[in-house]
Every structure is written in C-alpha cells, then in structure tokens.
Amino acid sequence: MGRMPAAFPWFRLPAILMEPAAMPHAISLDSLTSHDFETVAALGAAIWRKHFISMITLEQIDYMVSGRYTPEKLSRYLDAPDRWFRLLRVDGQPSGYCSYALTGQPGEMKLEQLYLLEALRGLGLGGRMMDEVEAAARAKGCAMLMLTVNRHNADAIAVYEKRGFSVREQVVADIGNGFVMDDYVMAKRLR
C-alpha cells in the first residue's frame, strides 16, 4: 500500500483544529454515516501522523491508515448489530472518534479505537468518549471492556490505567508488508 498520496484529504481539516483549543461549547458524539467516511479518513491521518510518529515509522502509519479508513472498512459499522462508530464533533467540527464492538467472548466488548486531535486533549473529551463506550458495554450486558494499545504509547496507557484498565498480556501481531503491532491488551471489569 505504501505512502498515501499528497492529496489525501487530511489536508482539508480546518487549521483551527490543529491549534491549542479553548473549552468547547457544543459537543456531540454522532453515529457514523457514509457521508462521514472522508472526514474520518482525514481525521485519522492527521491524528496518526502527529501522535504515532515517535512510536512507529511514517511508512507504517501510512500503511495502517490507508487500510483502516477505507469506505469498505468503515461501512462495516453502518447498521451492524454488534459494532459501533461515533464521530466526535466539537463546536461543529470533526475532532475525534471512537469505535467499539462485541467480541466473540460472552460478556466482553472491545474498544477498537479512541482518537482525539492533540489540540483538544486534556479537556475531558476522551473521557466523554470512554464514558459512551462503557455505557454501551453495560447496556449490552458486558462485564468486561478490553482494548489494545501500542506498548510505547505511555500517555494512553496512563489514561487507561487511571480509568481502571490493567495489562492482561503483551501481543505482537504481524499486520503485513513487514510491519507488526507491538501492543498491550488491557482490560477493565465493568461494575
């Protein structure tokens, strides 16, 4: 898959979303629609390129983003009975997203993704997305919420630990093209 073309739509994100933010006024967490696919791809590329560059190579970032945010992959969340994708909008602007799904284990849900533009971190928005995921897990009768996180993503690991997650195991998964994901599997018992 290689590098994304220079015309990849992440360049279209409003410049204001790349600057430090004041406390937002209007916050919404909306279900994904097919009209959001390009926005999510742009947001994903912007977040990944800025956040993960100290953990994995730009080539791996481009490889993962180009395979993860295709219309075919994103369409799996539309009307699916066992997986969900929420787009966070802050003052009307796309600012982050989370996705989650039931796993094959009874009573278990997986937080698949939770990403937020750097300028908006520290305002409680990631916590709002996590609250949404935990509430959805409880509503589906799940007693366990799990996730995977890059082993070198110390900030995210600290946030997850603060929210009650602990490391269950370490996994290294071959994702093709010579790349691996070196992750912790973390889990939290829901009360």
From TrEMBL:
The keyword Acyltransferase applies. The keyword Nucleotide-binding does not apply. One of its GO terms (molecular function) is acyltransferase activity, transferring groups other than amino-acyl groups. Coiled coil: none annotated. Gene3D superfamilies: 3.40.630.30. It comes from the Bacteria. Keywords: Acyltransferase, Transferase. Residues 27-191 form the N-acetyltransferase domain. Transmembrane segments: none annotated. This is N-acetyltransferase. The lineage of its organism: Bacteria, Pseudomonadati, Pseudomonadota, Betaproteobacteria, Neisseriales.
